Amino acid sequence: MDLLQELNKAGGFKNLDLLAKQVVEGFIAGMHKSPFHGFSAEFAEHKIYNQGESTKHIDWKLYAKTDRLYTKRYDEETNLRCHLIIDNSSSMHYPELKSYSIDSLNKIAFSALASASLMHILKKQRDAVGLSVYSDSYDFYSPEKGSERHHQMLLHQLNNLVLSKPENKQTKTYTYLHQIAEKIKRRSLIFFFTDMLQTSVDQDKLFDALRHLKHNKHEVILFHVFDKEKELLFDFDNTPKRYVDVETGEHINLYAENIKDTYKIAVSDYFEIIKLKCAQYRIKYVEADITKKFDNILTTYMIERQKFG
Q1: Is the terminal CB of the chain with fewer CB neighbours within 10 Å at N or C?
Q2: pLDDT digit string (tens) for 141-158?
């Protein structure tokens, strides 16, 4: 299915809801290759049976096909509360694109479409979802709800993120994570999309804020969003270029080859610190390369959803 048809080349997404649905359907179609074999087309209307629960809602037909026990879900059930957090600082709008395709997304568009895809699954599972967006201020907050009106409002907000072009918007992520943590009162699954790029990196403050997100027994998944080829491997041709810090406006002229090795070591070391700190604080770290598909995002959701219970 050509997802390109669903993108508005003038900027933003033409139909984000439909595009998210197609992403999820493509993921489900490929699930026969995954550990979730048998739990594909049916998964949105079922949950795994937990020992000690009543057996009256077990789907025996599905058991016959999968050899695993699932129970049917009902309209009044809302078993999960999920909160999406998106970093909308200027660096998240890299690379600057005039049009988008499924193979050509910048960091904010990748985060928006990934979030919409998660919302599509949550909606089918009748779960509640909320959203927080921050840049150099706490730009948007909506608590967890499950209504269709709420779903459409969040989709509209995600689309606006892609259309926004924040100029020189720096952020102190830790400031807003503390504020967001105070707002999420009931135990939730928290998905955080960020490139972890700070104008002034105060790592202790940043990781203290991430740890704060875990209070009230929340489960936190950090989707580290970046362009692996450019931002980690620094894969640019060796012609002189001007490299501009989109958050401060500062720039430097240089040949990529002259600093490539030093750059890769510095960035790799920083990414490794992020991974180790997440492991230390029991935060799930997931690499989210914007040049790859969304399977890693949705598989992570499936695993964490089943563990959340």
Answers
A1: C
A2: 999 999 999 999 999 999
Tokens of 148: 């269709």
In the chain the beta strands, taken as DSSP E runs, fall at 46-48, 70-72, 81-87, 128-134, 138-145, 189-194, 219-226, 241-244, 251-254, 284-289
Bridging pattern class, strands 189-194 and 81-87: parallel
Dihedral over Cα of 117, 123, 128, 132: its sign? positive
Q: What is the pLDDT of residues 106-115, one digit of tens each?
A: 899 999 999 9
Greatest alpha-carbon pair distance for the chain in Å reads: 69
Tell whether the model's pLDDT for residue 304 goes beyond 60. yes
Which residue pairs, CB below 8 angstroms and at least 24 apart, start in 178-185? 178/209, 178/212, 179/138, 180/83, 180/85, 180/132, 180/134, 180/138, 180/141, 180/213, 181/209, 181/212, 181/213, 181/215, 183/132, 183/141, 183/143, 184/83, 184/130, 184/213, 184/216, 184/218, 185/216
Q: What is the pLDDT of residue 178?
A: 93
Cα gap 115→306, rounded to integer Å: 19
The total of other beta-carbon atoms located within 10 Å of residue 229's CB is 13
Radius of gyration of the chain (CA): 20
Is 40 a residue whose pLDDT tops 90? no
Check if the beta carbon of residue 225 is closer than 8 Å to that of residue 195: yes
Q: How far is CA 191 from the centre of its chain?
A: 6
Alpha-carbon separation of residue 7 from 15, 35, 90, 108, 159 (angstroms): 7, 32, 22, 15, 11
Residue 140 pLDDT:
95
What pLDDT sits at residue 65? Answer: 72
